[in-house]
Specification:
Layout (H helix, E strand, L loop, with lengths): L25 H6 L3 E4 L5 E4 L2 E3 L4 H11 L5 E3 H8 L8 H15 L5 E4 L3 E5 L6 H17 L3 H12 L14 H27 L8 H11 L4 H13 L3 H18 L6 H12 L22 H13 L2 E5 L6 H9 L6 E5 L8 H9 L8 H9 L4 E6 L5 H14 L3 E7 L8 E5 L5 H15 L7 H9 L4 H9 L6 H6 L4 H4 L14 H10 L3 H10 L6 E2 H6 L4 H9 L4 E3 L2 E3 L2 H14 L2 H19 L8 H10 L1 H13 L3 H18 L2 H12 L8 H17 L2 H5 L11 H14 L2 H8 L8 H17 L3 H18 L2 H17 L3 H18 L2 H15 L2 H14 L3 H17 L3 H10 L6 H18 L2 H17 L3 H17 L3 H15 L7 H9 L4 H8 L3 H10 L5
Parallel strand pairs: 7-10, 7-11, 8-9, 9-10
Antiparallel strand pairs: 1-2, 2-3, 4-6, 5-6, 12-14, 13-14
Helix pairs in contact: 2-4, 5-6, 5-7, 6-7, 7-9, 8-9, 9-10, 12-13, 14-15, 15-16, 17-18, 17-19, 23-25, 23-26, 27-29, 27-30, 29-30, 30-31, 30-32, 31-32, 32-34, 34-35, 34-36, 35-36, 36-37, 37-38, 38-39, 38-40, 39-40, 40-41, 40-42, 41-42, 42-43, 42-44, 43-44, 44-45, 44-46, 45-46, 46-47, 47-49, ...
């Protein structure tokens, strides 16, 4: 027992910590506004958004006890008994004084602890203590609720409950004073939760649908609390779940009887009676929508949009192909409505008069001879919604019933799902498209984990979803297959998707249990003419235009019908059949033996289109024709593959000749090389003008792809080069074999050809030959002539390419300003053509040579962000590694090079090996540097690629310099000049070495003075000193 001098106890404990404690003096309120003391969870003292640590159990107990009476004097007796409840110190005054002193040193200035005559006072406002603030807010919320201000009550109570961070007074709950207060605060918290739920139920908050889950959790912890049971019953009834509400009452009655031998209270019994009578004002929401068994994925925005349209239109029809998720979207939308929603499943109906009877049955009405009249009588004054699900096979009857009900029941709304519109006045269509790839993959992963809880998504998931058109039903059927096969096996077996994707839910309609059944259902609803049109449309692997459809025999009426019935999608003037439906159509063509005929007709159209487009691709009409052919790319590729696989040499050669320019301008050069290799390898008469044009395109793309030597080995040299195309082929073959003078001689008679495009291409080929021979000045003259020719005919792509080459040549020669101006024009053209992204890495490399590092770095970063082609990313990584090396960040350089280590194509591998050699030199690993640079030299010699050999030579000069051979280094740097035909003085490595080797200019001039053959021999023979 405490026997100290101070006996005055200003606050008898336990007191009501309530509103009276929350009225600090005005001065205190002003002075202490910056401190917060939080006890609803682990103790925290916060000032100026900074936490202040309070050490020691007794210090925390003292602070908490004072905070609970913030602004009021707490007697010394009370404080001692609170802090030392079991063993009071021998000198309690001194012990308390010492503890107060320690606490004062801990607290911020804004929380002053005063010694008063009667005890101690913590000078902070009451609302600075979260427990006191909570009580005030909870009390105000309760008063607002009693006054019918539900919105205000909800805000106050939500704020109050938000102050809790965990168990109240958890630091000192073992002390008697704290245990009593904590229990009381917990009870107040539960009451505030109940008040908040009451406010939500009484108002119109959208959170009402979530209350059932919250209430069930609270009841699990407080099974005998009657108010919670009452709120749960009201929440269930307000959600239209009357049966569950009645069951909840019965569950509580049984619990009370078993535990207390009592009955529910009077108010709850009255509530039960009103529910049974159906006269409770909050139980008006009714319907028959069932709770979903699986998550709703990827359609949240669609659900909101359908709900919005449904508010403005009394008839909304969700249209889309089978398996796209129309039913799920409709029921998910219905679940958000504040009116009764009735789902009517029309799939089992087979006769027109079955449709109104199905609605009668769904609403639980008594069957009658005139079902429609019965529905009108029941729904005439009801604000309700009906979902007519699966109307396509009874579309006329569904349309008739919808028109009748909407016309005679002004408060009725109908949400229909169908593979084709109902086609009545007032109908608002909402096309339901397949999912995007990301939500489709999420759906697959969720359904996969349902059958394999350990499933971890891989890159195969995206590929599977794309192959299945991102159709939700197909994805769900595929995910189920993971019960018996790996994701990798599933991905490889989708070519036979109709046999693979079976075994859907046993409770699903028969038409949704297999993928074949889904498509067959739609196919069987077509007329004979529509079915024939759908089969012809299946021959198109990609989207197609109306002109193509007409060519293969699909009429405009048939196109319209197939779009209406969701067999075709229509957007931006083009039609597209989902791959799943297309494969079914191809299967039908195969069964009937009409597949080859359909593909022949398809190929005929695209051959005619390609030959019509080809002249325009070389002139001022290039842009619109590039855009048109780009849209037909998939169709063109399939037409060519059909001709090649079928041995149709004539069609294959004609397509190759017509599309060679398109593939060169608008495609991946390695891919174009592969296609054209197949074309020129077709048997047939040689040479013809068409075959020569295809061969020229083949060799040109192989040049850009770095595989000219390989391609040249598969091509015979034309017997005579008396035509420009044959001369162009001969020149590229000469380039591949190093016979540059022979190539130049072949081109000479045609350089004044009257056609500017032909002159431009021949001059471009000539510039390649001069470049390979190391004759920079001649090469610049040739590429200037090419620029002039392409300007004259309006061919933007070749002009852009030539300007890039000219810019590189000017920069190499030291004319950096003019080179950058030329490069800017080339970039402008490439952006106009849409080929800029694919050329950015190369453009950045040119800018590095010009010393324009900032722009180059920006372009390379954009490549990593936007590029998809592996070779573009590899080039960007190698260049970024060079820039990091120039900055002295060798670790970052190594990181970038690591991404390019698997480069396989010769030009990319040579660049990688050279970059790795430069980096090894910078790190002092001279042995590795010599190995990498030797590899790069070998590849560049084989190509042959003089600029690349010059790049390797600079690396070898750097290595020689680092190894203490400055004279030899300067000579090799001069050899690099000779190989490229210019100093390339803007390149950072060249600049650095030139500055370092100023005293060895004679050695540089000796290397620089070599002719190209001697320079090549010199660099090939150089071996770094070991």
């Amino acid at each position: 027992m405490y026997d100290g001098v101070i006996e005055i106890d200003c606050v008898a404990w336990p007191c009501r910590i309530g509103v009276g404690c929350l009225s600090p003096t005005p001065m205190a309120a002003l002075e202490n506004r910056g401190v917060r003391i939080e006890v609803l969870g682990p103790l925290r003292v916060v000032t100026d958004d900074r936490s202040v640590g309070v050490g020691g159990v007794r210090s925390r107990a003292l602070l908490i006890r004072l905070a609970l009476d913030a602004g009021r004097v707490v007697s010394a007796r009370t404080l001692v008994e609170s802090v030392w409840p079991e063993e009071v110190p021998a000198h309690p005054d001194a012990a308390l004084h010492s503890l107060v002193a320690r606490l004062r040193r801990t607290l911020p200035e804004s929380a002053t602890l005063f010694a008063e005559t009667a005890g101690y006072r913590l000078d902070v406002p009451g609302d600075a203590v979260d427990a006191l603030h909570f009580e005030l807010l909870a009390e105000e919320g309760r008063r607002a609720l009693g006054a019918g201000h539900h919105g205000a009550a909800q805000e106050l109570l939500t704020e109050a409950l938000g102050l809790w961070r965990g168990e109240a007074l958890v630091d000192v709950v073992h002390l008697p004073f704290a245990a009593v207060v904590a229990a009381r605060l917990d009870d107040l918290r539960l009451g505030a939760m109940e008040d908040r739920i009451e406010a939500l139920l009484s108002g119109s908050s959208p959170e009402r649908a979530l209350l059932v889950v919250e209430l069930n959790q609270l009841i699990a912890a407080n099974p005998l609390r009657e108010r919670l049971r009452s709120l749960l019953i009201r929440a269930l009834a307000a959600s239209g779940r009357q049966t569950e509400a009645l069951s909840a009452y019965e569950d509580y009655r049984v619990v009370l009887a078993e535990h207390l031998g009592a009955d529910p209270g009077h108010e709850l019994r009255e509530l039960h009676l009103r529910m049974l009578r159906g006269d409770a004002e909050w139980s008006h929401v009714r319907g028959n929508l069932r709770a979903p068994l699986t998550s709703f994925v990827g359609r949240e925005a669609d659900r909101s949009e359908v709900g919005r349209r449904f508010l403005d239109n009394r008839l909304v029809t969700l249209v889309g192909p089978g398996g796209v998720g129309k039913t799920r979207l409709a029921t998910a939308t219905g679940a958000t409505l504040d009116i009764p929603v009735w789902l009517v499943e029309l799939v089992p109906m087979t006769r027109p008069d079955d449709v109104p009877r199905a609605v009668v049955a769904a609403l639980g009405l008594r069957d009658s001879a005139d079902a429609t009249s019965s529905l009108v009588e029941t729904l005439a004054d009801c604000e309700t919604a009906v979902i007519l699900d699966g109307c396509e096979h009874v579309v006329a009857a569904a349309a008739q019933l919808a028109a009748e009900l909407l016309g005679r029941c002004p408060r009725l709304r109908i949400l229909a799902t169908s593979r084709e519109p109902l086609g009545i006045t007032g109908e608002m269509l909402f096309p339901v498209a397949p999912l995007e790839v990301v939500p489709a993959a999420q759906l697959f992963a969720e359904r996969a984990r349902a059958v394999r809880p350990d499933f971890v998504p891989t890159g195969d998931v995206d590929r599977i979803c794309r192959r299945l058109d991102c159709l939700p039903l197909a994805i769900e059927l595929a995910a189920v297959r993971l019960r018996s096969m790996s994701i990798e096996t599933l991905a490889t077996r989708l070519d036979d998707r109709f046999r693979l994707l079976t075994g859907g839910s046993r409770t699903a309609p028969a038409r949704h249990r297999t993928l074949r059944a889904v498509v067959e259902w739609s196919w069987d609803l077509l007329t004979g003419t529509e079915r024939a049109a759908a089969e012809r449309a299946a021959a198109f692997p990609g989207s197609f235009c109306g002109e193509a459809a007409e060519y293969v025999g699909i009429t405009a009426d048939a196109l319209h019908a197939l779009v209406d019935k969701s067999l075709l999608e229509y957007a931006e003037g083009r039609y597209r059949m989902l791959d799943t439906i297309r494969e079914f159509g191809v299967e039908q063509l195969t069964v009937t033996g009409r597949l080859d005929a359909a593909r022949t007709t398809h190929a005929g159209y695209y051959l005619e289109l390609a030959e019509r487009a080809e002249p325009h691709l070389r002139g001022f009409g290039q842009l619109p024709w590039l855009t048109r052919l780009a849209a037909e790319r998939d169709n063109m590729n399939v037409a060519l593959a059909f001709a090649v696989d079928g041995g149709d040499t004539d069609t294959a050669i004609r397509l190759g000749a017509a599309l060679g320019q398109f593939w060169t301008v608008h495609g991946d050069h390695a891919e174009a090389t592969g296609k054209l290799r197949e074309v020129v390898s077709m048997p047939g008469p040689q040479p013809t003008e068409l075959r020569l044009r295809a061969t020229a395109a083949y060799l040109l793309n192989a040049t850009f792809a770095g595989s000219l030597s390989t391609a040249a080995a598969t091509v015979e040299r034309p017997g005579a080069a008396d035509e420009p195309t044959a001369a162009f082929i001969s020149a590229l073959l000469a380039l591949a074999t190093g016979r540059t003078d022979d190539g130049l001689a072949t081109l000479e008679p045609h350089l004044k050809h009257p056609d500017p495009w032909t002159r431009g291409m021949l001059s471009f080929a000539r510039s390649l030959l001069h470049g390979a021979a190391g004759r920079g000045d001649d090469g610049r003259r040739d590429i200037s002539a090419a620029v002039e020719g392409f300007r004259g005919c309006g061919e933007r792509w070749a002009l852009s390419l030539s300007l890039m080459s000219l810019a590189s040549a000017l920069i190499t020669a030291g004319d950096t300003a003019e080179g950058l101006t030329t490069l800017d024009e080339a970039e402008s053209l490439s952006r106009e053509l849409g080929t800029h992204d694919g050329q950015q890495a190369w453009l950045a490399m040119v800018r590095i040579d010009a010393g324009d590092i900032a722009t180059a770095r920006k372009q390379l970063s954009e490549v990593l962000t936007r590029a998809t082609a592996p070779h573009e990313i590899i080039l960007a990584r190698i260049s970024l590694a060079d820039l990091a090396r120039h900055d002295g960040d060798l670790a970052e350089a190594k990181r970038h090079l690591g991404y390019a280590a698997d480069a396989a194509d010769p030009p990319e591998r040579a660049l990688y090996a050279a970059g790795a050699g430069y980096l090894a030199t910078a790190t002092g690993d001279f042995t590795a540097a010599a190995t990498y640079l030797g590899e790069a030299r070998g590849i560049a010699s084989t190509l042959p690629d003089m600029p690349m050999l010059a790049h390797v030579a600079v690396g070898m000069a750097d290595l020689a310099h680092r190894r203490g051979e400055p004279g030899r280094a300067s000579e090799i740097l001069g050899v690099a000049h000779a190989l490229r035909g210019g100093p390339n003085s803007g390149n950072p490595d060249v600049t650095r070495l030139t500055d370092a080797l100023q005293g060895y200019r004679d050695d540089y001039q000796r290397g620089c003075g070599l002719d190209s053959a001697s320079a090549l021999a010199e660099i090939q023979s150089y071996r770094p000193r070991s």
